[in-house]
Design goal:
Blueprint (H helix, E strand, L loop, with lengths): L12 E2 L2 E3 L2 E3 L6 E5 L6 E6 L3 H20 L2 H17 L1 H12 L3 H10 L1 H10 L7 E4 L3 E9 L2 E5 L5 H14 L3 E5 L6 H13 L6 E3 L4 H9 L3 E7 L2 H14 L3 E4 L4 E5 L5 H13 L9 E7 H17 L18 H16 L3 E4 L19 E4 L6 H4 L6 E7 L2 H9 L3 E2 L1 E5 L3 H10 L4 E4 L14 E2 L2 E2 L4 H7 L1 E9 L16
């Protein structure tokens, strides 16, 4: 079965694993239910992957890795472009399915899906330009660099961007010549399975891409597997610590893209309406469920009151409802647990004295959405650094506003806390923008915009936000092991123990 009729909401779909290029039944009978977050109904199910399932997938990847690594980069690039073309053909169905599974409004998903093939095409292109260097060195030696893939890579992907984040990782890994085993989030595992099946259709050899679904048991078995040589995780900070510890135990390299508490600095030199619109996007796209959601809005006191008023007015006008409706601005959060956590943050912010200026109470929704996991888009003003909402990641549509007076104060507030992934600066004063950016510890910074992404733009953080990079040459090279070769060019061999001269 190559293509599932995935968009019919009346059809319950039960998926197997996808291993060695084919749909593959699990070793056990346990299954995990996957909910439609807009209705609370079970729409899909996947296997609860076991250590035996993981081992089967890793062995398939291990068997395929040497042949894929030996494939000419031109051919690897051609196959990546073939997969990109297939994704473009099926974009409408893929966007509808991602929207249904994640709860993201269809308008958002269509915009995101339209760009996903670019990652496959970009890495298909740059791998052809991968070059080593050479030097003639002291003593009659020539040295040059070479690259080789790790072999089997584990890709652990999140639920908020199931295909986008997977394709970011997968494109670099495959272009570099690695085989992969993917463990998608148990909350949104379906589209990665389909992507693996479509890759087989595109001609990517069996075993190069494998997907095992499940929860913590499957993830732990994958990162601990002795044949996994590189791990790439996007997830929460707590999960990242566990994965990093497991990788360190085996001295396996990691890329970790973890949590965030992203600040937006809005100076009084900003275009006020533009900054309000940018904040609305930063804070509420994907219902605030992205690693760089603008959750801490720092506004200079001269425009603070006007900013609060304008933002509150726009938040109240956001349409919340069915993700499949093109007019919907805000869908549900991913799960009942996420909903309850967000509502808990709202209650705590009220109790700690933050001033509620928008949202805060559930909106009236149609009966068919009554059991969905909806959180009202919510804004609190006058949030101080001591409050929980200022410090902790919400991962939902709840944001805070804090006033500041000086440039130094803005930077100190932005840098407060253990996260260092994203930030944005809003000002028409270019000198001020440059000074501020130079002092921010965030790994990804935007000026007068937010959350723009491109295959060429390095993406990664530090501290509790992880380490390593996605996108660009850094991502490709992270999936390669760089080595050197030294060749003696001198006619005579320097036999050291016979009195010869050696350099080194």
């Amino acid at each position: 079965m190559a293509f599932f009729p995935v968009t019919d909401p009346a059809v319950r779909q039960d998926f197997p694993h996808h291993i060695a290029g084919v749909w593959s039944a699990p070793e056990g009978t346990a299954r995990r239910r996957v909910f439609d977050p807009a209705t609370g109904a079970v729409r899909w199910s996947v296997p609860e992957g076991s250590a035996a399932d993981v081992d089967r997938a890793v062995r398939a990847a291990s068997a395929a890795a040497p042949g894929w690594a030996a494939t000419d980069p031109d051919e690897r690039a051609r196959l990546l472009r073939a997969l990109a073309a297939l994704l473009r053909e099926r974009m409408a169905d893929l966007a509808a399915l991602e929207s249904a599974i994640t709860g993201r409004p269809i308008r958002e998903m269509r915009a995101q899906m339209a760009r996903i093939p670019e990652w496959l095409e970009y890495f298909a292109g740059i791998v052809l330009g991968l070059e080593g260097g050479s030097n003639q060195v002291k003593g009659g030696f020539l040295t040059w660099t070479r690259y080789r893939p790790h072999g089997v890579c584990a890709l652990l992907t999140p639920w908020n961007h199931p295909i986008l984040i997977l394709v970011k990782k997968l494109s670099a890994a495959l272009a570099a010549g690695n085989a992969v085993v993917i463990k998608p989030s148990e909350l949104a595992p379906v589209t990665p399975l389909l992507l693996s099946a479509w890759a087989a259709e595109a001609g990517i050899p069996p075993g190069v891409i494998n997907v095992v679904t499940g929860g913590a048991e499957a993830g732990a078995a994958l990162v601990a597997h002795p044949e996994v040589a590189h791990i790439d995780l996007t997830g929460g900070t707590a999960t990242g610590r566990r994965v990093a510890a497991a990788a360190a135990e085996r001295l396996v390299p990691c890329t970790l893209e973890l949590g965030g508490k992203t600040p937006l600095i809005v100076y009084d030199s900003a275009d006020l309406d533009e900054a309000v619109a940018g904040t609305l996007f930063a804070g509420f796209v994907a219902a605030g469920q992205t690693c760089v959601s603008g959750s801490r809005i720092l506004v200079q006191r001269g425009i603070y009151d006007a900013f609060c008023r304008k933002l509150a007015e726009r938040v109240e006008r956001l349409t919340q409802g069915d993700p499949a409706d093109p007019v919907t601005n805000i869908g549900p959060v991913i799960s009942a647990a996420s909903r309850d956590r967000c509502l808990g943050h709202i209650d705590k912010a009220k109790a700690e004295g933050a001033r509620l200026i928008a949202g805060g109470t559930p909106r009236t929704l149609p009966p068919e959405l009554a059991a969905g996991f909806f959180v009202p888009p919510t804004v609190f003003a006058d949030v101080t650094p001591e409050m929980t909402l200022f410090r902790e990641e919400v991962f939902g549509p709840v944001i805070s506003l804090t006033a500041f007076d000086t440039e130094d104060e803005a930077v100190a507030l932005a840098n407060a806390g253990p996260f260092a992934l994203g930030a944005s600066v809003w000002t028409r004063d270019i000198l001020l923008a440059h000074r501020t950016v130079a002092r921010l510890k965030a790994g990804v910074v935007w000026i007068n915009d937010h959350h723009k992404n491109d295959p060429r733009s390095i993406w990664g953080g530090s501290g509790d936000s992880g380490y390593g990079h996605e996108n660009g040459w850094d991502a490709l090279k992270s999936y390669l092991i760089k080595g050197s070769v030294t060749l003696r060019t001198a006619q005579d061999f320097g036999d050291w123990f016979a009195g010869g001269k050696r350099y080194g």
